[in-house]
Amino acid sequence: MLMRTDPFREMDRIVQQLSGTSGTWSKPSVMPMDAYRQGEVYVIAFDLPGVSTEAIDIDVERNMLTVKAERRPTGKSDGVQMELSERPLGVFSRQIVLADTLDTEHIEADYDAGVLTLRIPIAERAKPRKIAIGGESGRKQISG
């Protein structure tokens, strides 16, 4: 149901983790995700801990799904001295090419406990259907 668009994306993610660099709007970091089919719905879950819903942007154009998010630094008051900072900040993004068999007009999005979950129904035209064969004329009728 999904097509990988960049085979080097995973290598970029590893390099960013090792180098400690944060994503920017021009070169965002990748966000981890899971994708699976659950009955008649395709589910994609993105890990975005510490990101507010206002900082998440979801777009779909034709069959290209784009999810962008920004984790901003927490407000620091005067007199605070940072001892350790391992949580990545910056911009995270993921682009996914969705199959034609998915109904991109009815995508649902939920965000809970740092996980953004998108539910995309399987399109009616992609579901299996019976084809009835008519009488002597050999007419065929499709039933959905």
Automatic annotation (TrEMBL):
PROSITE patterns: SHSP. Residues 24-136 form the SHSP domain. Belongs to the small heat shock protein (HSP20) family. This is Hsp20/alpha crystallin family protein. It comes from Streptomyces virginiae (Streptomyces cinnamonensis).
